[in-house]
């Protein structure tokens, strides 16, 4: 089961071209949704205006070597290790979900385009990675949803309370969970595989089609904002983006603990 390409098995009923078209459409929806989000909310305009203002206030000229160093720090600390999270549990849950999503999506695309039918045998590692990515999403996502969210963990709120901001995590969890159930039932010859596949397609469409209303587009904005923040501190100017409260040089570590009144 864990070494079988579920999309190759599906090709017996759905043409590979249809599956490949679906993946392309999802990528287009993400790109279009992100552009719409940028234009509608003015994110890019705000970012560059803020960047120019912060550079004018800077008391120190940054050299090319320091620019490279700041870019590397941003990539390693803020992007690859999610250093903006002070809470260790929140960071671990975020990393599990983030890397799970990347593994899950990339392996799905590779299997759909590179090994669409049983006639093109799939290397066993790809389905294994697909299952690993899906399980990482579920582990990190459900951990966050039921135990780490502020209104649940700190305020004792109901984990069933849903807001528009929850659209991304819920659709991601829905896509991964339903996809794994579908693959499991399909491998076992379960009669409900078709139903769960349909639900999987719906959840995946919501995930990639709801970019203007979810937080998916933030994954493209956050690295740029983190880099701008580091540059503004290095140049001596203060960005109006939230920054570390105690030690400007330590990102995601020394911050004030949240106060509850």
Descriptive notes:
- It is a single chain.
- With 261 residues, the chain is mostly helical.
- Helix content is 67%, strand content 0%.
- It contains 10 helices and no strands.
- The protein has helices spanning 6-10, 16-41, 43-57, 64-80, 88-114, 125-148, 150-153, 167-188, 193-209, 218-235.
- Helix 2 (16-41) runs parallel beside helix 9.
- The longest helix has 27 residues, at 88-114.
- The termini are far apart.
- 26% of the residues are buried.
Structure summary:
The protein has 261 residues and is mainly α. Helices cover 67% and strands 0% of the residues.
Features:
single chain, 261 residues
Walk me through the topology:
Blueprint: H1 6-10, H2 16-41, H3 43-57, H4 64-80, H5 88-114, H6 125-148, H7 150-153, H8 167-188, H9 193-209, H10 218-235
Helix pairs in contact: 2-9, 3-10, 4-10, 5-6, 6-8, 8-9
How does the major sheet shape up? none
Q: What's the tally of helices?
A: 10
Tally the beta strands. Answer: 0
Distance between the termini: 52 Å
Strand content: under 5%
Helix content: 55-70%
Task: Output the helix-strand order.
Answer: HHHHHHHHHH
């Amino acid at each position: 089961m864990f070494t079988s390409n579920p999309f190759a098995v599906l090709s017996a009923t759905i043409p590979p071209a249809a599956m490949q078209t679906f993946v392309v459409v999802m990528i287009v929806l993400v790109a279009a949704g992100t552009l719409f989000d940028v234009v509608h909310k003015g994110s890019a305009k705000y970012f560059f205006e803020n960047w120019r203002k912060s550079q004018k206030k800077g008391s120190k000229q940054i050299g090319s070597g320091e620019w490279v160093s700041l870019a590397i720090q941003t990539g390693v600390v803020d992007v690859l290790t999610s250093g903006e999270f002070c809470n260790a549990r929140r960071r671990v849950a975020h990393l599990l979900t983030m890397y799970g999503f990347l593994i899950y999506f990339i392996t799905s695309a590779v299997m759909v385009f590179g090994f669409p039918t049983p006639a093109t045998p799939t290397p066993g590692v790809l389905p294994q990675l697909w299952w690993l990515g899906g399980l990482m999403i579920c582990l990190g996502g459900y951990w966050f949803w039921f135990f780490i969210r502020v209104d649940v963990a700190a305020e004792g709120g109901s984990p069933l309370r849903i807001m528009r901001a929850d659209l991304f995590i819920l659709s991601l969890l829905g896509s991964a969970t339903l996809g794994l159930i579908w693959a499991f039932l399909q491998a076992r010859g379960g009669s409900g595989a078709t139903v769960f596949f349909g639900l999987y397609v719906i959840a995946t469409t919501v995930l990639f089609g709801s970019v203007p209303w979810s937080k998916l587009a933030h994954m493209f904005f956050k690295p740029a904002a983190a880099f701008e923040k580091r540059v503004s501190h290095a140049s001596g100017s203060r960005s109006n983006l939230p920054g570390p409260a105690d030690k400007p040089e330590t990102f995601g570590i020394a911050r004030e603990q949240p106060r509850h009144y």
